[in-house]
Write the structure tokens for this entry.
Amino acid sequence: MVRSMFAGVAGLRTHQSKLDVIGNNIANVNTWGYKAGSANFMDALYTNTTNSTGGNSTVAGGLGGINASQVGYGVRMSSISRDFSKSTPYQTGHDLDIMIDGTGFLIVRSSSGAAQTPITTDTDLANAEGVSLSRVGILTVDNEGYLVDSNGYYVYGFQPGTPDQDGNVTFNTGEINRIRIPNAPDDVPETDKLPADAEGNVRYKCSSYRIMSDGTVVGYTQGERKVTMGKIALAGAQNVNGLQSTSGYYYQIGDNTGACTIGESGAILGSILSGYLEMPNVDLAKEFSEMITTQRGYQANTKIITVTDEMLQELVNMKR
């Protein structure tokens, strides 16, 4: 009889955990790039009241087989999965806001010593120190000319080569590094150059920026000179549900993520939409319906505990 009490308690705990997931989804209903979570249940441990036996009809007096009789101990959480499907774009009007129209992720690094180290494109990102993945492209250019996100993490991409006579730029696709405003040649007017920094570098003085659909980041000087800063690289994960969420809309590469490759924007990883951010993929109608069924499941489990308590009360009152 007491096993029903244990099953009810297990049900309460599990439904509370599911409500925690639902609450987190609703709390992030306006969080850029948020991917909704889903709680999955599984039945818990079983004990056999009767073991199964096979039939033995060939022996005199033999009997047929019988099935096992099992009593369960309730329910438990099996997993919490995320829906990584692409959500709706929201137009912000800011040229440095970007959305990935596909399955790819931005590659970012914090301002650690590792941030200064390039990453070769044949490297599995799981082996690169300090790398995080992101779906939120709230970007800006900092005081040192680096392209960073809203938390100051450096955005990684392919570095530009020297423009040809027609102004066309090719990129070094063998490695990625921090995207930065490049140095200005000596023949550039002084109005289009910044003063030399502590390292003696004289960089272009850009006043506006644009990001193309292929990820190319371009700055424009006051003299309307076009400056190619780099090309944003994207990452692809073999198992996106193996990524581990951290605070600040970042994902860490987990042990079950599989290979994380580096690529360019395109048909496989998706194109880049400039002036847009990705809205959360939280379906409020679904979340509220899930909340109702979770609440009713919680109430039903409390009834199991109450009825079990009443039966124990009757048992105690037998001897009076």
